[in-house]
Amino acid sequence: MILSAAAFFLAIAFFLLGLYQALWGERLQISQRVEEVLGAPALSFREQELKAPFLQRVVRPVLRKMIGLAGVLIPAEKTAVLEEKLNRAGRPGGLSAGEYALLKYFTAGAAGVFSFFFSGTLHLEPVQTCLLSFLGVLLGWHLPNFYLEARIRDRAELIRKELPDVLDLLTVSVEAGLGFDGALLKVAEKKKGLLAKEFSQILREINMGKPRREALRDAAERLGVDEFSSFAGSIIVADRLGISIGNVLRAQSAQMRNKRRQRAEERAMKAPVKMLFPMVFFIFPAVFLVLLGPAVIKISKVFTR
């Protein structure tokens, strides 16, 4: 019976597939070929809006309206600090400082409500319920900060890893006869990653009329990484004093590689200290149990006779 039912359903499926190919297969092939030659048709404004992510279509307009209605809840003196942190984190979700602050209020309230109902399911006392709800509000308030700080650290570490190789490519391009802007363009085309995107942003700002030193200074402020700030400062000084940019890039590349090697050595020196606690509390007891367990059992049997 099972085999007969499976064969029946497979026969129906193949019949429908063949019918679909016979009716619309040629038309689909023609439309696909036309799209390959002429390109995809332009989307309408409504289709473009519907194709946007949910955060951009729904969440951000609601946040903008709430910012206008509850602007008092966002301290004005913290706006600049939040903007700087969001820039260093790569502007997650394209959020502004006001939208991020409102998200913190929302996560704090949502975590507090969840903790309150969760404590109700546990049948806790009122004092314990209030304490658990307060802890939920604190956790919800600080979770976005933890996420933002983690993104800032990850981006900074990634930039530190990419910078020596990018400086080598810049040095080779400059020594091959390209100007500094041409070398930046070459790196932006050949490399992928955060620094390639930043170089593309720098080139766009330069093409729009911003001076090179200001574009580099703004990029250093956006990233907030000491190594990139040192690189940008060296290029600005070389541009002002007329020093050869190739020599500056070569020196910066060597310096970045030395710093990367020093960070690797520092982590290697910290590794034994970090391994000490797991070994003492987890590995050594298991080893002692395996080695001394049989001896303890034999000794206990001898003394119990």
From TrEMBL:
Membrane topology summary: Multi-pass membrane protein
Gene Ontology cellular component terms for the protein in this record: plasma membrane
Compartment(s) where it occurs, according to its Swiss-Prot or TrEMBL record: Cell membrane
Coarse class of the protein's main subcellular location: membrane
Residue span(s) of domain Type II secretion system protein GspF: 167-292
Family matches, as InterPro entries: T2SS_GspF_dom
Residues annotated as transmembrane: 6-23, 276-297
Keywords on record: Cell membrane, Membrane, Transmembrane, Transmembrane helix
Source species, domain of life: Bacteria
Identification of the protein by name: Type II secretion system F domain protein
Organism encoding this protein: Desulfofundulus kuznetsovii (strain DSM 6115 / VKM B-1805 / 17) (Desulfotomaculum kuznetsovii)
High-level lineage: Bacteria, Bacillati, Bacillota, Clostridia, Eubacteriales
